[in-house]
Structure formats: structure tokens, C-alpha cells
Amino acid sequence: xxxRRKVLAGLGVAAFGWAAWHSGSGRQQPAAPLAGVGGTRxxxxxxxxxxxxEVRFYxxxxxxxxxxxxxxxxxxxxxxxxxxxxxxxxxxxxGERAGRDVHLYSLTLQPELDSPERLREYVERxxxxxxxxxxxxxxxxxEQLRRALGFYDVDPVVDFNDLSHTGMLRIGNDALDRWTMAxxxxxxxxxxxxxxxxxxxxxxxxxxxxxxxxxxLAQA
Length: 220
Fold this sequence. Notes:
The relative contact order is 0.20. The chain has helices spanning 2-22, 57-62, 80-94, 116-125, 139-148, 156-160, 188-198, 214-219, and strands at residues 46-49, 54-56, 66-72, 102-108, 132-136, 168-173, 178-183. α3 (80-94) packs across α7 (188-198). Mean pLDDT is 79; it is low at 2-39, 205-211 and 216-220. A seven-stranded mixed β-sheet has the order 2-1-5-4-3-6-7, sandwiched between helices. The chain is globular. It starts with a helix and ends with a helix. By secondary structure, it is α/β, with parallel strands linked by helices. Keywords: Copper, Disulfide bond, Metal-binding.
């Protein structure tokens, strides 16, 4: 199991590096996720959902669950809308598993601006269905989570840029302490496959190719 976890962590770092290269910035040298990203080593900080509900990050959102987590902010007009649209495809592919077996979370990078009300407007504007929660909180708490999840860069200049943290998706199964990463704008079916890889209850994808969303089929 330890070997498997190390392999998955390595895949995550490799994926992060691929995303940095693909973005065209030769300066980006993303840091590896912190050791012990799963379990109780997650900061159990208080957060607010886009519905205004108070939650604790680990106890309420991650403990014992299969999760997919990205970072975004409501005013982003560059990569965030494309990422959101792609993750909507993933949510559609998950079907009834979304919010029941697999939990989708988006953390804001601009908590001072992104109140629950503003995040709710974002959810409505992008027609996001149940099973996907958008989260905000105190700046210090968001920063703790950003680093614990591996969304940071060793170069402080790059790390200061919010856009440098929006390109990856942290995927994990807390019950098994099995974690990896995937580029958030890669093929939606590939993201689903990565989610299924960490979910021990799933032995095949949750949809047949003929049932894939029209947008995904058009890209095939």
C-alpha cells in the first residue's frame, strides 16, 4: 500500500509538472504536495459553502470520502470558466454518484472577495448541479489548505499569481489514504477514470460511451 501511495503521489507531481510545461511558462517549478496529505493531517479549518452553511474541511468534507478538489475564484476570466465547464462534464458523467459517492469541491483563491453570495451567483451562472460545493473562508485558513493540497509553487513570484494555482485537480480517497492529481482541463473522461482509480467501490466507468454528454462526444 505504501508503494502504491508513493506511485500515486509521484503521478500527481508529474501531472503538475506537465501542466506547468503545457501552460508555456518555463519558470514554473511546482512543489511536491506535502507529505501526509490525507487523513488527520489535513487542516480541519472552518469554511462556508456557497449555500452559507458552516463546515469543517476535514470532518465534514473529506473524512472517509472520495473527493475531487480544485481552486478557483469568481472573477477569473482566464482558466477558471474553462475548468468549470470541463468539471461540469465530469459531474454529468458521475451521474447520481456526484455528491453521494464522489464529492466535488472548489475552494476560492480570493476569499476576501468571494463571499457565499458571490459563489452562489457563480454556481447559478454556470448552471452547476447538486453534489458540487464552492467554499470560502478566512485567508489564513485558505492558505493552509492550498499548501496542504499541493496547490503552491516554490517560486514566490509564481506562487503569488492566483492563476498558477487553478490548473490542477486534487483527487483522493481519504478512507484508503490514496491521493493523486490530474490537470483540470484534460479530457473529462480521463478525469473520471482517475477518480474511479482511487474509488475502490468502482470497477468500471459510470457511463457507457453512447451515454457520454454530447459536448464530450464532439471532442472525441
